[in-house]
Amino acid sequence: MVDSTDWWDHRPVFSTTDKMSRITGLGPGEQPGHVTTRMLVSVLLCFLGWGAVSLLGTSALCGTTSAPSSTCAVDIPGHISAGWFIAAAVVVLYLVLAVTTDLNAHARQRLGQRRAAALLRSAPLLAGMSVGAFISAATAVAPDPSDVLRRTVHGEIGTESVAVSVVVAVLTGLWCVTVVVRLPSALLHARQRQLTIERLRRDGRRYAGQVQLGRVVIWLGHDPELEVTIACDSPAGSHQLQARMRTSPDRVPADGSRVVVFDDLRGVVHIELDPEAEPAFEPEARYAPSE
Questions:
Q1: What is the DSSP letter of 222?
Q2: Which domain covers residue 32, as residue numbers?
């Protein structure tokens, strides 16, 4: 289960530099997160689970479409009825989805960023599917690689499973490469942003401000992201900051809600709702996405 303390519970989350899923949060009193042993174990389980799903799925396709002499990676015994096989597949898929969902939720909570969590979840998922499909295709062509490949290229009946396995292996493999290339920078960005938030809360100068709502830029799922203006007073005088605000429809602060602006005098800023104020929120229906 995911820890009860979650930065998203303290939404809205503001950023003067990032947008959409790159916006990073850190719960009050929380320490910056990092990749944990639990995440790595979940990554391994996710890889193995999706590898098994891909292997079993393409093997089942092989058993129903290939010629009798063909070899499948996993032979499904003939005495097992289709109903039992489907039931077993549903259970396996449910367990794999549960592990994948837990990995994404735990990573999002610890890293404070949806983008980093999504990439960390997608990498083992795509890698597992690619490896499983590759094993299935390699097993199917093993008896006579040149003949099976020739018949597959010509689209002969009985080679459908080989073609599907190859396509799945190649597409998910290429997708996985793009995810793996982006993952280190996403993890580093999330970590640096949380360290910056912690530093500004501890050492930054604190100013009172007010939020002025702008237009909704985008909905991520059912959650709106708005352009906002933060009006605040500092020793240098009154000024305004342009920012993005991620929140949910039920936690859009009303115009004029009090916020706290943390500044290190080097242009790095962190904004959050004033914990000592009781903010009023806009009616939920006003910021719910239209169907």
A1: T
A2: 18-198
